[in-house]
Amino acid sequence: MLATPSFLLSQSQLKKEIEKMIHYDTEIEYKKTPGFIVHIIDGESSYTEHFGNSPKNTLDTLCIEDKFQLGSVSKIFTALLINELAKVEVLSLDDPISMYLDPTVSNPNMQALSIRDLLLHATNFPKRPNNFGKKEKDIADPYAYYTKDDLLAFYLSYDKKHKTDKKERASYSHINYALLEVIAEQASKTSFEDLLQTYVFQNAGMFDTGIVIPLDSLHIGYRKTRKESTPWTFASFAGSEGIYSNAKDLGQFIKNYFNNDAFILAASMDTISNSFIPTKYNDKFLSAMGWQVIQGQTPYNICAMAGTTDGHNAFIAMVKETKTAVIVLANSAVGTEDLGMQILRMINNNWKRKAEHEQE
User: Fold this and answer.
1) With the C-alpha atoms ordered 207, 314, 263, 266, is the resulting torsion angle positive or negative?
2) Domain count of the chain?
3) Contact criterion met (CB below 8 Å) for 297 and 282
4) For 301-355, how does the pLDDT look when each residue is reduced to its tens digit (9 = 90+)?
5) Model-level pTM greater than 0.85?
6) Domain membership flag for residue 3
7) Which terminal Cβ of the chain has fewer Cβ within 10 Å, N or C?
8) Which CATH number belongs to the domain containing residue 249 in this structure?
9) Where in the chain does DSSP place strands (E)?
């Protein structure tokens, strides 16, 4: 951790600025979000600061190595994996998804859909399967009993009146990335965890990141009711919401992308962040592969993603051209996305900061 990031604020000054944001510009309450950690990347410099306490009602603070479930931030790494598998020709982004599914679950309504469409959310799936509730034995652990067979049963039975073709505007759905997990395993005949470790995490220098983890290794989290949560487990949907990590690994991943000319994942990172289509929600809010892209606030695209589980919240946003990024990990299901965007705006000088090559 460098004492003076290149945006010319000392650690103490930066923490004071963030505290002002928390107090005046966000709705964060320490009763609802007892503790969170902020990790800032600015070129080759980085800065980490903790706020609040964890566990609550103690003097303990969060640290850069504390592990959190990432929720939908997992989609970034699933998108990276699929692009890496395409590089080694295990699959192609333009392959129909039916190519990798057993003929017994072939659905004629889905024949037009490709792997690329799943990556971009260019489908018409609902956010979760309509048979999801039947398998939800524990609302505190919603994916524990929903298997990949259940997912494929939904896929097979998706009704003709909901015919799913390629869409020009994205509609966000967890189903897309749950299916990508199944496709990756079928195409490679390898477990999703092993694929992520081999093609993504090891190459990114992320050695404390994965899916399968002793539950007591995860940091304590709190529900919106302020009661202690239990970690989610995944019989399916790990590719959508099931990855855990920490600020150290996430920061290393982004710093490698910004600064390491030999970074193996750089081409795939370029692809997933620069391939996007409009969404049905907002013309300035675009759907990329794993990322969501915001246009119009700055001369450059903002790539961002947020995720929430029963007791954790994760946020990551970056501007590649200025080599700036913010990661916020919280021990509560109550989000901190507003704070993350405020910090990114600050270190980009209210979006007036120029790209690195323009500063020279």
Assistant:
1) positive
2) 1
3) no
4) 999 999 999 999 999 999 999 999 999 999 999 888 999 999 999 999 999 998 8
5) yes
6) no
7) C
8) 3.40.710.10
9) 35-42, 45-52, 68-69, 244-245, 276-278, 285-288, 292-294, 302-308, 313-319, 324-330
